[in-house]
Amino acid sequence: MKDHVETVFRTVHSGSAPALSRIAASWRRSLDKHGLDPGGQAAPEQMEDGQLRERLDEIGSFLQIAAPKLDQLFGLVGQSGCTVLLTDADGVILDQRCSAADEETFQGWGLSQGTNWSEATVGTNGIGTCLAEERNVIIHRDEHFLARFAGMSCMDAPIYGPDGGLVGALDVSSARSDQTEAFNRLIAAMVSQTARQIEIDTFRAAFSGNRIVVADSDTSDTAVLFAVDSDDIVLGATRAARKAFGLGTTGPISPLPASDLLGREDGPTGFEKAERAAVVRALTRAGGNVSKAARALGVGRATLYRRMKRLGIGE
Description:
This protein is an alpha+beta fold. Helices cover 48% and strands 15% of the residues.
């Protein structure tokens, strides 16, 4: 513990280190901004039952949508000494998956429902630093600010809501003393993929009455989705779509024609290719029956014929 504490102080006070290292910058925030002691032994704050119930009620639909994805992720990592955690935007753990064999270890660290893992509370850690910096993070063992957590490895990804705002973090924490950085990277990829799928499912649920268009993306690690009504007016966009198309980070977006936003002048674009793919899939599933495909797409038969003509799709 003493060595870790000395390392934290030496790094933070080195002058250039926080500017060159994100971990060092987080250590500086923990020390200078939040006034934490790297040798501190205080456990993470435990929220009172009443307050926790209020939070769970407020974010209930999000938890219901995320639950199957937490189960799937835990099925992949649970037998490797890992716990799966879902937090709100404040870093409070709202849901958890953990094996009975590891439960006591994680509870000893304070990794349980209702505990607060914000960076302001416990310093540099997977959950808190992920939320503070709004990015995927891996905090491996002694990269934690508090020496008491130097035995953990944490892999996290932020989750954004349908309005583009940060709603929480998805975390996998490991209790294994032999956890390697290579294994951390493998788990981190699964965490990121699961977080994006939760975003996608939440967005689809929020705009269940609209058509969802998937635009081209330079990376598979983002969910670039738009919600489009029957008049092809864009009503909603995921955080990644907002960022890619300059629609503002959070909040309602001004309705605008999808063609104005995504363009069609220079041949097939992400929007047109996505629309064409959706129509072709519907026709294929319907065995070429246009009426059946139109019902599946939630449009009229005449509307589908017009779209097929515009997209160059033969009957």
